[in-house]
């Protein structure tokens, strides 16, 4: 009988799952079950489909990196600030404001998505691991108990079968066969009662010995799968300690704080050259590695997210239920196999109510019916009295009464074990574990976690590369004069000639040369006397002088 108070949950696909499922595969398989198809090219085809999204992300990173190198090689005369040079714009130009705004916004968004990658990404993954561990341990205990009860039922059934066979033989040879009017003499229809007993005892047949053997085999198969899940969850639990959160948060805060401070100082015209040099050559290389790492992580996680989505939307059911049936089919199980029937029962049948698992409900009913008819015969014998019945039948009824008592006791024991097995394997016990593990853990926490991690890491990488491209934001603008870049000014590369932009003509013109040699000598004398070597360039007749830059190097 179904318990109307319980119904297994139905699966509802998340939009996140559908989004990750729809990642382009370029004609390759998106069936998760293909991973278990070791006998064909199914695994290779599926893996190739996963690689396309990862390769696309890595290609984006490589192309962007090459573009940055090209800008650097072209120099500030051709691409301006994109080469790393300071802004050289008229005083009323909005370009530095816009670029620095984008730079600071990118830093802010890196902090935001670093936080989201932890709160919505890693935390959900931690929840998944905890759910898997709790569920696998609970189901392992239930499976072990159910397997023990099943083995006891099989053993007790064999013992009871011998007693049943003796009783059937005794009853079939005739009960008071020499008395034709037993009913008239006793007022009890013993023949009808015995006929019912024989019918029910024969229905028990071998007491489902073969079914119990299959059930134990199926439980062992399911138990092996649960052990794998438990091992996987425990391995992940060791990996997802607190340190991944710190590795995401601390570098993000450190880099964004240092770069934002540099951009704000440059915006305020605070020309701290050594700090700019520190950002350009002390921090920027590590930040570049940080950016590359996030591109690689995003490429790896997108494959994991797509695999997770494929698992959660498989088969005809477009759910983890369908994935399990596909896996069983790929592994060679048929609908007649106990493992397949067990999975189908908990995945599908339990949605109809708390039904007894497979044959156990029918077995309990057969045992109960046999026990009732045996008790009826004992009651009839008792009502007639054993002595009176022996007198009428002219035979010893004692051995028959002993067999009835013995078989009744054994069937009572079988009924108790059957009820225990039904209770242990009931839908209300196992179906919630299944739905909690896969509907909630794998197809809610996990898919949301990896999807947020993928999205956050990819955006962190993109915004990081944006900051690298706009690294001139932490250099002080030269208000109409383009006289240095991030590398040439501070690391001693070959200096460039000073030029300015005429606000009216919007054309670059050479700086007016000093009218005579005396002015140059005066400037040199001034530098020598003041011992100030923080001039970037001194231009005379279109030539550049050698002076010390902000990093203490000479250009």
Average pLDDT: 78
Describe the global form. rod-shaped
Structural class, by secondary structure, is: mainly alpha
Q: In order across it, which strands form the biggest sheet?
A: 1-2-3
Record field, number of beta strands: 5
Rg, Å, rounded: 42 Å
Helical content stands at 55-70%
Order of helices and strands: HHHHHHHHHHHHHHHEHEEHEE
Straight-line N-to-C gap: 92 Å
What fraction strand?
A: under 5%
Uncertain runs are 480-549
Main beta sheet: 3 strands, antiparallel
Number of helices: 17
How does this structure look, described?
The chain is mainly α and 555 residues long. It is 68% helix and 2% strand. The protein has 17 helices and 5 strands. It has helices at residues 15-21, 42-74, 76-79, 95-172, 182-186, 190-204, 209-239, 243-267, 273-312, 320-330, 338-347, 360-384, 386-393, 398-424, 427-469, 488-491, 517-530; strands at 481-482, 499-501, 508-510, 539-540, 543-544. The protein has a 3-stranded antiparallel sheet with strand order 1-2-3, with no helix packed on it. Helix 2 packs parallel to helix 15 (427-469) and helix 9 packs antiparallel against helix 15. The chain starts with 14 loop residues before the first helix and ends in an 11-residue tail after the last strand. 38% of the residues are buried.
How would the blueprint of this fold be written?
Blueprint: H1 15-21, H2 42-74, H3 76-79, H4 95-172, H5 182-186, H6 190-204, H7 209-239, H8 243-267, H9 273-312, H10 320-330, H11 338-347, H12 360-384, H13 386-393, H14 398-424, H15 427-469, E1 481-482, H16 488-491, E2 499-501, E3 508-510, H17 517-530, E4 539-540, E5 543-544
Antiparallel strand pairs: 1-2, 2-3, 4-5
Helix pairs in contact: 1-9, 2-9, 2-15, 4-6, 4-7, 4-8, 4-14, 4-15, 6-12, 7-11, 8-9, 9-15, 10-11, 12-14
């Amino acid at each position: 009988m179904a318990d109307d108070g319980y119904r297994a949950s139905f699966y509802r696909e998340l939009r996140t799952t559908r989004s990750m499922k729809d990642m382009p595969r370029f004609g390759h398989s998106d069936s998760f079950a293909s991973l278990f198809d070791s006998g064909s090219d199914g695994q290779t085809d599926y893996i190739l489909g996963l690689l396309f999204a990862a390769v696309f992300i890595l290609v984006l990173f490589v192309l962007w990196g090459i573009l940055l190198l090209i800008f650097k090689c072209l120099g500030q005369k051709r691409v301006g600030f994109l080469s790393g040079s300071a802004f050289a714009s008229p005083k009323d130009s909005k370009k530095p404001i816009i670029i620095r705004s984008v730079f600071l916004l990118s830093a802010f968004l890196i902090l935001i998505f670093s936080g989201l990658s932890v709160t919505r990404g890693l935390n959900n993954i931690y929840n998944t691991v905890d759910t898997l561990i709790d569920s696998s341990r609970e189901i392992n205990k239930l499976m072990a108990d159910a397997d023990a009860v099943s083995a006891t039922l099989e053993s007790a059934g064999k013992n009871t079968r011998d007693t049943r066979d003796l009783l059937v033989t005794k009853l079939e040879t005739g009960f008071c066969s020499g008395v034709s009017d037993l009913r008239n003499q006793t007022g009890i229809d013993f023949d009808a009662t015995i006929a019912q007993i024989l019918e029910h005892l024969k229905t028990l047949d071998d007491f489902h010995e073969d079914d119990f053997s299959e059930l134990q085999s199926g439980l062992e198969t399911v138990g092996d799968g649960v052990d794998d899940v438990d091992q996987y969850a425990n391995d992940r639990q060791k990996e997802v300690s607190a340190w991944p959160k710190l590795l995401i948060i601390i570098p993000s805060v450190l880099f964004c704080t240092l770069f934002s401070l540099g951009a704000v100082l440059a915006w305020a015209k605070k020309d701290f050259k050594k700090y700019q040099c520190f950002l350009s050559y002390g921090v920027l290389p590590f930040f570049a590695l940080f950016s590359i790492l996030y591109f690689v992580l995003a490429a790896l996680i997108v494959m994991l997210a797509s695999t997770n989505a494929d698992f959660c939307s498989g088969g005809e059911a477009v759910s983890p239920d369908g994935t399990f049936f596909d896996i069983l089919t790929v592994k060679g199980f048929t609908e007649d196999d106990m493992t397949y029937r067990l999975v189908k029962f908990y995945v599908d049948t339990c949605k109809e109510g708390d039904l007894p698992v497979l044959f156990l409900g029918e077995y309990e009913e057969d045992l109960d019916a046999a026990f009732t008819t045996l008790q009826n015969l004992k009651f009839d014998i008792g009502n007639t009295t054993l002595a009176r019945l022996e007198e009428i039948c002219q035979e010893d009824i004692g051995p028959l009464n002993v067999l009835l008592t013995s078989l009744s006791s054994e069937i009572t024991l079988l009924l108790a074990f059957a009820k225990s097995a039904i209770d242990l394997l009931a839908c209300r016990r196992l179906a919630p574990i299944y739905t909690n593990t896969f509907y909630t853990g794998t197809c809610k926490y996990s898919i949301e976690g990896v999807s947020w991690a993928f999205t956050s890491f990819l955006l962190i990488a993109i915004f990081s590369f944006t900051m690298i491209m706009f690294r001139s934001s932490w250099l002080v603008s030269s208000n109409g004069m383009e006289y240095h870049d991030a590398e040439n000014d501070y690391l001693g590369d070959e200096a460039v000639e000073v030029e300015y932009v005429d606000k009216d003509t919007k054309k670059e013109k050479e700086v007016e040369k000093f009218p005579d040699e005396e002015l140059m000598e005066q400037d040199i004398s001034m530098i020598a006397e003041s011992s100030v070597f923080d001039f970037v360039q001194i231009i005379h007749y279109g030539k550049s002088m050698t002076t010390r830059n902000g990093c203490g190097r000479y250009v």
